[in-house]
Write a structure and sequence with these properties.
The chain is an alpha/beta fold and 328 residues long. It is built from 16 helices and 12 strands.
Length: 328
């Protein structure tokens, strides 16, 4: 008897998932890729489970995401990235206190934000401290000085507890803080409230921690946050807390397949994108990726970078590239 998997869009990862008996058989941002691999028997996990077909569910989330794509179609994807650069500058010069950037990963959000921050004149604090770390005696002055810290930005990646977020905001109270893929903060109600206070547009933003058992550490019960916040998330924008969206400038970089190719077209021409490879090779790799767009597992910059490296080796590179794109 034929077994059927369920196909749904995971709003957290923005990927289509085929599931059977609580197990993910295949996942990809490309819906047709998942369906084709299940129905043609190319998916090993599906074959092992005896699954031969898929049935779509989760139409509400699908419609919501489709609506977002249609809404932003009014603005070309490269124009939206231009907007992003200007909005980053607004946070860097304190015109605006906060910015939220959403959209599927692997298509240049973080790179654009970092490049814009540096072009605006800010320095990555990690690089500065690695070159000349302040001593324990002047560390507090270094953190506290608005004049000094207006020149720097700090990067926070990955998981953080609410208490960890509070410390991060305290230590960077006069800097621009970039939260890159820190979705644990958005899902934690306590951390979310702290972040709301930091993102607010009031002239004075006071962040407080009034819970019992605060502890005898070096953190104050409350402090004024004068810095800026930029948050980058792979979550769809409709999944973010409404209070966050209303407090910050929001740039949604959700893209359909054609827009992803269009964005990559612009990126391969940038001088800092794989500078050691000829434009001709990058062009050939992108043309092949566009040809295979309906079959590839992942359609993003990481895939393109891999293809460029394969293409640069010459020979029968397209055959190797096809395997790279379609193998599970």
């Amino acid at each position: 008897m034929s077994k059927v998997a369920t196909l749904s869009l995971d709003a957290r990862t923005n990927k289509w998932q085929a599931m059977f008996a609580g197990r993910v058989l295949a996942a990809s941002p490309n819906k047709d890729y998942v369906i084709t691999n299940i129905r043609t028997g190319r998916c090993t996990k599906a074959r092992e489970a005896g699954v031969t077909d898929v049935q779509e569910i989760g139409q509400v989330e699908t419609n919501t995401l489709t609506g977002i794509v249609q809404k932003v179609d009014k603005f070309a994807i490269n124009e939206r990235f231009d907007f992003l650069t200007e909005f980053v500058n607004m946070v860097a010069d304190r015109t605006s206190p906060s910015l939220i950037v959403t959209g599927e990963g692997g298509l240049g959000k973080t790179h654009t934000v970092l490049a814009s921050l540096k072009k605006s004149g800010l320095q990555d604090l990690t690089d500065v401290l690695a070159a000349a770390a302040p001593s324990e005696d002047d560390d507090e002055d270094f953190n506290a000085s608005p004049t000094i810290n207006a020149k720097y930005f700090s990067i926070v990646k990955g998981y953080s507890t609410a208490k960890g977020l509070y410390r991060t905001l305290w230590e960077n109270r006069n800097r621009v803080v970039l939260f890159d893929d820190c979705d644990s903060i958005i899902r934690d109600p306590v951390a979310l409230n702290l972040l709301k206070a930091a993102l607010d547009s009031y002239d004075k933003r006071v962040i407080s921690w009034n819970a019992e058992g605060f502890g005898d550490d070096d953190l104050p019960r409350s402090f004024e946050f004068r810095g800026g916040v930029i948050s980058i998330s792979n979550m769809p924008i409709f999944k973010l807390d409404q209070a966050l969206r209303t407090r910050a400038i929001c740039v949604d970089l959700t893209m359909n397949t054609a827009q992803k190719i269009e964005r990559m077209e612009a990126i391969i021409k940038l001088p800092d994108f794989l500078p050691n490879f000829e434009l001709k090779v990058k062009r050939e790799a992108l043309d092949f990726l566009e040809k295979m767009k309906d079959e590839t597992r992942e359609l993003n910059l990481r895939t393109l970078i891999s293809l460029v490296k394969v293409a640069s080796r010459g020979g029968d590179w397209m055959r190797r590239a096809e395997y790279l794109l379609t193998s599970i």
